[in-house]
Specification:
About 30% of the residues lie in helices and about 30% in strands. The chain is built from four helices and ten strands. The two termini are about 25 Å apart. About 30% of the residues are buried.
Length: about 200
C-alpha cells in the first residue's frame, strides 16, 4: 500500500511536518520504503513524500496535525500545522508513461534477510527513469526478474501520481480546492521538534 504525505500549499512549517511525520512513520511501519519525494524549501523538509508498505496503512489516511512553535519564524504566533495523508491506489493495469528506452536498469547486491542467494547474486534492481531522473529500487523479491518487475510497477505508480498532480495543478481552481487540507479531526497529533505522538 502506498501512502502519500503532502504539505499542500502550506508554508515551510507544514513541509517540516511532512518530513518529521514521515520519519516517525518509518519507525512504526514494517519494512517501509520511500518511493519518491519532493524536497521542501529548507533542510529536512518535504513538499510531499510517497511511502510504500506491505502492511495495510489505510488507518492513517486523513489529516495530521503537528503542534510546534516555528523555528523558521520565531515571532509567528501560529503553532498548529496540518498535512494531508492519502492512500494512492496500486493499479494492476500497467499504464506506464515510458518505454524501455526511457529506463536504465542497475543491479546491486541486496542486503538483509534472504539467505545465501542474496549475498552471492545481484538480486537488487534499481530502475532509473532517464527523462525525469526518478529512481525506484526493489530488493524484496528473491529473483532479479521479479525485483525488476516490482521496481517498474512502482515507477509507473510514481509517474502516474506525478502526472495527476501536474494536471490538477494546471487547473488553478481545482488545484486550490485540492490543496486545502482539511483541518478538523486529525487522525493523529504530533507535538514538538521530536514529533512525539499525542495519545487521543
Amino acid at each position: 500500500m502506498i501512502l502519500q504525505l503532502s504539505a499542500g500549499m502550506g508554508p515551510v512549517e507544514c513541509q517540516r511536518a511532512v518530513f518529521g511525520i514521515c520519519r516517525e512513520l518509518m519507525k512504526e511501519i514494517p519494512s517501509p520504503e520511500i518511493l519518491n519525494y519532493v524536497a521542501g524549501a529548507e533542510d529536512e523538509t518535504f513538499l510531499s513524500v510517497m511511502l510504500y508498505s506491505k502492511q495495510d496503512v489505510s488507518y492513517l489516511e486523513g489529516s495530521m496535525l503537528w503542534i510546534c512553535k516555528s523555528k523558521y519564524r520565531p515571532w509567528h504566533k501560529r503553532k498548529n500545522w496540518f498535512i494531508d495523508v492519502s492512500i494512492i491506489p496500486e493499479t494492476t493495469e500497467m499504464e506506464e508513461n515510458f518505454s524501455e528506452n526511457d529506463l536504465r536498469i542497475e543491479k546491486f547486491h541486496a542486503n538483509g534477510p534472504g539467505g545465501q542467494n542474496v549475498n552471492k547474486v545481484e538480486t537488487g534492481v534499481r530502475v532509473i527513469h532517464i527523462p525525469s531522473g526518478i529512481r525506484v529500487s526493489s530488493t524484496r523479491e528473491r529473483s532479479q526478474l521479479l525485483n525488476k518487475k516490482d521496481a517498474i510497477r512502482k515507477l509507473a505508480i510514481v509517474l502516474k501520481s506525478r502526472n495527476d498532480f501536474e494536471k490538477v495543478k494546471s487547473r488553478n481552481n481545482a488545484w486550490s480546492k485540492h490543496s486545502e487540507i482539511v483541518r478538523g479531526n486529525p487522525v493523529r497529533i504530533y507535538e514538538g521538534e521530536n514529533f512525539r505522538l499525542k495519545n487521543n
